[in-house]
């Protein structure tokens, strides 16, 4: 047994403190959504399906639709731009890996407000060329998710002998497209799935860039609705967190399934 490992009691204390740190705000928010004039009820949850409240919640549905479109475009950037580039660097340009890793991880150290200041002139040109649709935020979100997606994909690349797989497929006459799509990508599916789901979670939770660039997404819509119905904003916040937790559970189950298959 490692003498530096914390004792069982210490692990329990850490687990309880960390669990309380997350559980208390969520429980408080949930209880807040149950409050009404007569005590507690589900009236604020059932109001989501009340046609009379449709106009109040309309910004949230619009913002949610925009965020879903942004999630799809951002995931496409991760899968079809970042992942192939990482495979290319790993196979053909290994000496560039440290520099590439530095550039990819750089956005995590830059505050969102600084990113917006730098991206504002670019988005002025994007607006003239492609319009001001919310989907154009995917270019900025594609930058913000780079550090998270990179770590997830790189872990899978390091766990698989990508070079041997590629050389074996090439020796059998496969083109590079076949090598990447039918040989390497299936072996990286856990990392690609994790990168995709983390990207979706980041996009659904991002507020600063969308607000400062005047785009309506899920988080900015929550702020708008909060000014007229604070209960609805709390309900949608809990639903968004539940979706994020569900995505993390899917990542964990996918990784566990792969580990079990590899061990069998």
From TrEMBL:
<feature type="transmembrane region" description="Helical">
    <location>
        <begin position="233"/>
        <end position="254"/>
    </location>
</feature>
<comment type="similarity">
    <text>Belongs to the binding-protein-dependent transport system permease family.</text>
</comment>
<feature type="transmembrane region" description="Helical">
    <location>
        <begin position="103"/>
        <end position="126"/>
    </location>
</feature>
<dbReference type="InterPro" id="IPR000515">
    <property type="entry name" value="MetI-like"/>
</dbReference>
<feature type="transmembrane region" description="Helical">
    <location>
        <begin position="132"/>
        <end position="153"/>
    </location>
</feature>
<keyword id="KW-1003">Cell membrane</keyword>
<dbReference type="GO" id="GO:0005886">
    <property type="term" value="C:plasma membrane"/>
</dbReference>
<feature type="transmembrane region" description="Helical">
    <location>
        <begin position="68"/>
        <end position="91"/>
    </location>
</feature>
<keyword id="KW-1133">Transmembrane helix</keyword>
<feature type="transmembrane region" description="Helical">
    <location>
        <begin position="192"/>
        <end position="213"/>
    </location>
</feature>
<keyword id="KW-0997">Cell inner membrane</keyword>
<dbReference type="Pfam" id="PF00528">
    <property type="entry name" value="BPD_transp_1"/>
</dbReference>
<keyword id="KW-0813">Transport</keyword>
<protein>
    <submittedName>
        <fullName>ABC transporter permease subunit</fullName>
    </submittedName>
</protein>
<keyword id="KW-0812">Transmembrane</keyword>
<keyword id="KW-0472">Membrane</keyword>
<dbReference type="GO" id="GO:0055085">
    <property type="term" value="P:transmembrane transport"/>
</dbReference>
<feature type="domain" description="ABC transmembrane type-1">
    <location>
        <begin position="64"/>
        <end position="249"/>
    </location>
</feature>
<dbReference type="InterPro" id="IPR035906">
    <property type="entry name" value="MetI-like_sf"/>
</dbReference>
<feature type="transmembrane region" description="Helical">
    <location>
        <begin position="12"/>
        <end position="34"/>
    </location>
</feature>
């Amino acid at each position: 047994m490692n003498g530096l490992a914390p004792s069982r009691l210490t692990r329990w204390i850490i687990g309880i403190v960390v669990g309380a740190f997350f559980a208390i705000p969520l429980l408080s928010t949930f209880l807040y959504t149950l409050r009404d004039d007569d005590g507690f009820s589900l009236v604020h949850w059932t109001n989501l399906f009340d046609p009379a409240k449709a106009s109040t919640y309309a910004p949230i549905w619009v913002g949610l639709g925009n965020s879903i479109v942004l999630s799809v475009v951002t995931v496409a950037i991760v899968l079809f731009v970042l992942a192939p580039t990482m495979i290319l660097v790993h196979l053909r340009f290994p000496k560039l890996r440290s520099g590439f890793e530095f550039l990819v991880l750089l956005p995590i150290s830059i505050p969102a407000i600084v990113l917006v200041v730098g991206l504002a002139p670019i988005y002025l040109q994007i607006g003239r060329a492609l319009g001001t649709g919310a989907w154009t935020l995917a270019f900025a979100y594609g930058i913000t998710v780079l550090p998270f997606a990179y770590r997830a994909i790189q872990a899978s690349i390091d766990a698989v002998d990508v070079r041997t797989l590629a050389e074996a497929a090439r020796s059998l006459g496969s083109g590079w497209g076949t090598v990447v799509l039918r040989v390497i990508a299936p072996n990286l599916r856990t990392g690609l799935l994790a990168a995709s789901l983390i990207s979706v979670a980041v996009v659904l939770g991002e507020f600063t860039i969308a607000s400062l660039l005047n785009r309506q997404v899920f988080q900015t819509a929550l702020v708008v609705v909060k000014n007229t119905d604070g209960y609805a904003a709390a309900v949608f916040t809990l639903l968004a967190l539940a979706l994020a937790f569900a995505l993390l559970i899917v990542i964990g189950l996918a990784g566990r399934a792969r580990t079990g298959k590899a061990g069998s």
